[in-house]
Specification:
lipopolysaccharide transport protein A fold, elongated, 14% helix
Length: 302
């Protein structure tokens, strides 16, 4: 019995010691986790339904509204949630945007927006994130972008927009469509440029434009629009058009959508089976898939 009492005493002491030790670590642990959060809270002021804005020559050129904003006391940085805003790159032009989260340096007027959704005129752009600099009028991302409009849609990777120069560039892996009064055409290219002042799109590097029974290849493709309609396409450099076994080659070709014809100039030739024909201009009609040649010259290959 005496030994049993000793065992019970030792066991009880062990249990009590364990409980005291566990209680000690339990009380000490929260200090290590909460301490940085409390320190962070001391440096941040939380606002709800806040608005930030900037002016240029006495006119408000940008503003951001956020449901929640955390403003650091010791540095000019704001963390925002559920935000939306607008930017005016020039008179009469407004870019609307929104995002789930954002960070902004209020002194430098630049930052980043996550899950961004941008609307400009008829176009809507989406990306995982977007860096912005209101002072320099620059917007950029290295993430994939998705752009949709009534006449043009495209996807690509990496974007850089200069609102002062009114130029938008997409860096690589371009795939998209253009809508015309004659049909829908798919295009692919290495790069994409949009010149806002001229309302012109440029595809560069290994360009392919595909229509019904037609593949057009070239080094550079200029897409011109007039109002909301696609007007014409200028293909430049090593132009090749393939349709139903016939190949047309030239250094320049212009697709007039309204007239539904592609005009090949600058030493154009067409190849069919073993026959080569030249003449200028050579005209292709996408509707009936036929070529016509002015003053044709024929050469039969053996």
């Amino acid at each position: 019995m005496k030994n049993r009492g000793i065992v019970v005493y030792i066991a009880s002491g062990f249990i009590i010691s364990s409980l005291l030790l566990a209680l000690y670590f339990f009380l000490k642990k929260p200090e290590k986790i909460i301490f940085p959060i409390l320190e962070e809270a001391k440096r941040v002021i939380v606002f709800k339904d806040v608005k930030y804005s900037g002016e240029k020559k006495g006119v408000t050129d940008w503003e951001i509204k956020a449901k929640i904003a955390r403003k650091f006391i010791d540095k000019p940085v704001v963390l925002m949630e559920d935000l939306e805003g607008k930017y005016k790159p020039k008179e009469g032009a407004v870019v609307f945007f929104k995002g789930t989260k954002g960070t902004m340096n209020t002194d430098e007027k630049k930052g980043i927006i996550e899950d961004v959704d941008i609307i400009y005129n008829e176009y809507r752009l989406k990306s995982r994130f977007m860096d912005f600099d209101f002072k320099k009028g620059m917007t950029s991302t290295s993430a994939p972008v998705d752009i949709k409009g009534s006449k043009l849609t495209l996807r690509g990777i990496g974007l850089a927009a200069n609102t002062n120069e009114e130029i938008v560039r997409i860096e690589k892996d371009i795939v998209g469509f253009i809508e015309t009064n004659k049909g829908r055409y798919k295009f692919e290219s290495d790069k994409f440029v949009y010149l806002l002042k001229e309302n012109r799109y440029i595809l560069e590097g290994k360009v392919i434009m595909k229509g019904e029974d037609m593949n057009l290849l070239c080094d550079k493709l200029y897409i011109f629009s007039k109002g909301n309609d696609m007007e014409r396409v200028d293909a430049m450099g090593k132009v090749r058009l393939i349709s139903k076994g016939t190949i047309a080659k030239s250094e320049k070709a212009v697709y007039h959508f309204k007239d539904d014809k592609i005009v090949f100039t600058e030493s154009p030739k067409i190849f069919k089976d073993n026959v080569e024909m030249g003449g200028e201009p050579i005209i292709y009609n996408p509707s009936n898939k036929k070529f016509s040649i002015d003053k044709p010259k024929m050469r039969l290959e053996k």
